[in-house]
Each structure stands twice: as C-alpha cells, then as structure tokens.
C-alpha cells in the first residue's frame, strides 16, 4: 500500500507533456519542411579556399604548430613558477636514473638514455599541448627498440673475428656491437618520428582509437614480462645473449637458468638491496602522499648510494660486478641516421610510432580531463614526431610519455610544460658536468630500478577478474594481446592483437541483439516485451529492432532473426500456400473424375431405375458433385490463409548508422516478401544520413515509397492501426 502511494506521489511530481500533431511519415514530413539552399563547391573552389591565407589564419596555424607562443606570454609567474620548479626538479631526479636504466632495455650504452632524456623532453616544451605528461624514455618502447637492435645486430654476427680472450679484443667487440646497435636505435627514432609527423600533418590522430584500453593494458603487461626477464641477467650478474622475436621470453629464461650457477653473489646482493629500498620508498610515498611536500626520490638516492658503494669497494675489479662504464662528457655533434637501415626496420617503426603516440595521448587525455583543458591529438603526433626525428640527429632513441614520471610531475605541483623543460636541463647538467661520476654505478642497480618500476604494470593482471565481470569480449582482447605479445614478440603481438580487436568488432555487428518491442501503456515509449511485464504488443502489429547497422556481413542473420522473432516466415507461408493449392487442385480433379464415373454409371443403368427409390440418393450425389464442380481456381486462397493474424511489421531503425547496397537489397526483399503474404512493412526512426544512403542506392521506387518511412515508432503504429481499420471496413 505504501509502495503504491509512493508511486502515485512520484507520478504527481513528474512533469507531463501533451502534443497534438499529425501522424508523420517521411513524405509528409519532407513536404512541410524547407531545405536550406547550399551551393556545392567545385574541387577547384575547395582547393582555392584551403590554400587561401589571411593573417588570422596564418596566426592560428602558427599557434597550433607552436603552442608555446600561446601559453608562454600568459604564464602567471607568481602562481605557477614555484610549482613548476619543484615539479621539474622532482621529475629530473627520476629522469636521470630511468634514462640510464632504460638504455639497457634499448640495448645501447647508458649515456644514450641521457641523450634521450634531454633533447626530446626539451623539444616537447615548444610543440606539445599537454601540460603534465613527462616525455622521455619508457620501458615498453625501450624494450621494443632493444628487440629490433638485437635482431639486426645479434651477438653472433659481431663475435666473428673477436674470439680472442684478450681484454682489448673484448673491448673492441663490445664497442663494435654497441656502435651498430646505436645506429639501429637512432634510425628507428628517425623513422618513427617521420611516421608520426606524416600522420599528424594528415590529421590521422584517430589511429590511437584502434588501440583499445584492454588491448593496450594486455600489451603493456606482456611488455612488463619481457622487460623483467631481460633484466634478470643484470640482477644476477651473469653473461647471456639477448634474444628477440617469437619465444624470446622462453629463450631468455632458459639462458638465465642454464647460467644460474655462475651468478655473481655481490651483484645479486646489491640488486636485491636496491629493490627492497625502492619498494620501501614507493610504499612510504604512497601512504604519506598527502603529508609529504614532494615524493622521496628513492631512485636517485639508490643510484648515489650504489655508485658510492661501488667506487668505495671497487666492486668492478674486486667482485667482477658489471658497471655502467664510460660516460662521455659533453654533447655529441649531430649526425645523420643510417638511411640504408630503413627497409629492414620500417614495420617496427610503424608499431613503435603508434604505440608511443597511444601511450602519450592516453595519459595526456587523463590529465587534461582532470585539470579542465583540451589537448590536440594531431598536434601531439606532430610534437612526438619532431621529438623523435630531430632527437635522432643527436643520438637519441625513440621516446614517449612515462606514466610514473608523469604522475610525479603532476602530483608535485607541475602546472605547465616549464616543469618538463627544467627536468631536461637537470639531465643536461649531468651530461656536460658530472656524468663521469656515475661510471662506477653497477648495472644491477639499474636493473633493480627497472624491475621496481614494473610494479604498476604487473598490477594489470587484476584486469582479468575485472573484465571477466564486465565484458567477456574485452577479456578476450586482453588475453590475446597478452599471450600474443608474450610469445610472438611485441611487434607481431601488437599486430595480432589489433587484428583480433577488429575481428571482435565484426563479430559484434554480425551477431547483434534482436528484440521485439511493445508499448508502455498510454505512452509513446516502446521497450523490449521480453524484459518488462508492463510492456504490451498491439494486436496484429510486430515491432522489430536490431542494435546494429544493416550491411553485407549481417543482412542474412537480420532476415533470419526477423522471421524468428515475428513468427512470420513469408517463404514458408508461400510454400504452404502453393502446397495447399496443389492439394486443392488434386481434390477438385478427383471429384470431377468421380462425377464423370457416376454419370457413366447412371447412363448405363436400366430405364425403369430412373424412378427408383435411389433417385434421391443420386440426386443428392449429383448435387454434391455439382457443388464440387462449381469450385473454381480463383477460390483457392480461402484454403491457405496465413497462419498468423499479423497485418503490419515495423522495423525500428534507431540503432542503424549505415546501410550498404546488400543491406538495401535485403530490406527491399523483406518488404516485397511480406507484402505477398498480406503484411505491410514500415520503417521507423530512420536517420537522415541513412535515408540519403538509401536514396543513393535507388531503394525507393513505385512499390517502395517514402510513405513507408515514419518519424517515430509511435507514428508508424498509429498509421498501421488506421490502415487496418480502413481495410476491415
């Protein structure tokens, strides 16, 4: 009782509306509307208009290409400068050890990680539109670069001619190998930058949408496993070859296990100690996030401690611990990348360009939404393209946005790109002044930094439970991206994952949900009759809806579902009708033969039997026979009435975004077939672009007119009721 009273009270408070208008079909509605006159432009006019340049247009393009010209003159020094300085120092302190560490992932000497942490970061200040992301080295991209470098310059090729155990020969071997791998990494940066620039200028920023969140998360989780396994040899201090391509994870683990007996205990102790310190530091930063003015820079602390311990105890000589080694002081002169390598690494460059852009733009969108500003996806492509291509002339490898550094830059008070510029200047000071101090730094310390930074990515394994609850298809995308990237390699894995994601889109459109709609009483609202008890169907009217467009891939399933949901199969009814007609013809033929036989029997009978008592019987027989004879073929239809009392079928086109030529033919066939069995087909809520497409496909003719198209389902229902009443009268 109380529930009913509350329901009535809510109804009284609900706003009501009442509209009186004609029942609109498309023809009637178009007759009352006046289209705006638009003069179509010729191709020449379009080209002239696009090439026309005014001072306002030139200024707009300049500001778009160089966003710093727009925000720097308005920079509020008093409000923003202190936050940007603190944020820049905090991010720079992270940038330095991560640059050194991720260079190992990219299979190049650590100093090139510093170059990649300076040039691209500084350039992004001028061309980037995001105020909070930290550009520079990133584990996933570095791992992809390292895979290509090792594939192009494997240890086996370089080892030819350096079989001597002499220390000089060993140094020459590593120097030759590293030089060639640097050339591959630098050329990869140049090519991926050019690809990003081309995509940006062609306004192809939308390509990132094909890397869905489940795909990216599954891919990065697999990349984290690749990164972790690649760092095991540095943590354990053992010598193994680096692998790339399919099953590289398996080969890497097998190689480490085969050499596990040669583990350098000193390197392992140093590495494990650094891992513990870093995990403690991250936990403190997380728990006391609100109380700490800036996060504790555990990475640089660990680097300083590790360098000091290594130099003081002479770990390199005394315990054979591998160290960073030579870090040249100052910047290198610009050099042109090795152009002849481009054909061999072109596909890899495309993958790196798209993954790098996807990472950057996803983080940029998160911060833009949080802080209330907008980013330009195409300009981000251009900015990353300039950072990579120009940076490649100064020996940097491909870069993108780092998630961990971006969070630090934002949480420590960074307001603009100035924070990123300050972090790059800190790296520059290390390169030109104090870089040599980090030469004793053990490589196991860098491996520890890399491994601990993978903690956030490994947490993504929790996505499996989340997607299991929310979407099985997205779970399938995550699993395929993870498994393919883990076992096929990051390049082929990404390609496989994107292809599978496309297949899921086709699967969803080929297998949409089909529903039969009914009316909520006394409203013009129509819902699924199987879902709500209150929803009722109109007698003789079926309303059918599919939540997908109608095109070649799903036109057949659309027709099948329509027949199943409505319970009316025109083909079956027509077949039954033809069968009944044939049966009726056979019955008439049998009756005629029986009549002829009876007539012959009567003529052969004796005359006196004409007056016999049998006469009434013969008379009755003749009467029945005559009645059979009077049945004409025109009356066959009365024997094959449709088994359903449906007179109208309404197709709800609200979810339909497009119709191709196959879909249009299917729709026309449906209208024709149902008309043959006495069912009128109407189309409701068809959008303007779909109507235009149908017109272009010559869908409308004398038999299929625009009168079959209605503005809404309710218009179509009322029109069908009026038509049925007129037909019954």
TrEMBL record:
Gene Ontology MF terms: secondary active sulfate transmembrane transporter activity
Keyword field: Membrane, Transmembrane, Transmembrane helix
Membrane topology: Multi-pass membrane protein
Principal subcellular localization: membrane
Coiled coil, from the record: none
A single Gene Ontology CC term: membrane
A Pfam family reported for this protein in Swiss-Prot or TrEMBL: STAS
InterPro entries: S04_transporter_CS, SLC26A/SulP_dom, SLC26A/SulP_fam, STAS_dom, STAS_dom_sf
Positions of transmembrane segments: 100-127, 133-150, 184-211, 249-280, 292-313, 341-361, 418-438, 475-507
Location of the STAS domain: 531-720
SUPFAM superfamilies: SpoIIaa-like
Signal peptide: none
Gene3D superfamilies reported for this sequence: STAS domain
Protein name (record): Prestin
Native source species: Haliaeetus albicilla (White-tailed sea-eagle)
